[in-house]
């Protein structure tokens, strides 16, 4: 039990260091810091936001669901 108390954190730290190191040297590595906002994540090729508000989504849903009841 005493061994596990220090081995588990050591394994986690070692895995993180190796992962970040590999990510750093890869030419196509993942960005660790960046803009993760909805507007940045959901944009088209012209960099225009694909995010819509709740009111607009509700209106589109109601408009498109009329007459389509099964």
Question: What does this protein look like?
Answer:
This protein is mainly alpha-helical and 70 residues long. It has 2 domains: 1-33; 34-70, no CATH class. Helices cover 57% and strands 0% of the residues. The protein contains 3 helices and no strands. The longest helix has 24 residues, at 2-25.
Global shape? elongated
Order of helices and strands: HHH
Distance between the termini: 60 Å
Contiguous low-pLDDT stretches (5 residues minimum) are none
- How many beta-strand runs? 0
The total tally of domains equals 2
Q: What is the radius of gyration?
A: 23 Å
How is the secondary structure organized here?
Blueprint: H1 2-25, H2 38-41, H3 54-65
Task: Briefly characterize the structure.
The protein is mostly helical and 70 residues long.
Tag the structure with descriptive keywords.
70 residues, mainly alpha, 2 domains, 57% helix, 0% strand
């Amino acid at each position: 039990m005493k061994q596990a108390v220090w081995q588990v954190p050591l394994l986690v730290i070692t895995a993180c260091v190796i992962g970040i190191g590999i990510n750093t040297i890869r030419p196509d590595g993942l960005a660790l810091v960046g803009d993760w906002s909805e507007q940045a994540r959901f944009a088209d090729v012209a960099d225009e936001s694909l995010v819509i508000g709740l009111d607009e989504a509700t209106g589109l849903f109601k408009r498109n669901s009329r007459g389509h009841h099964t």
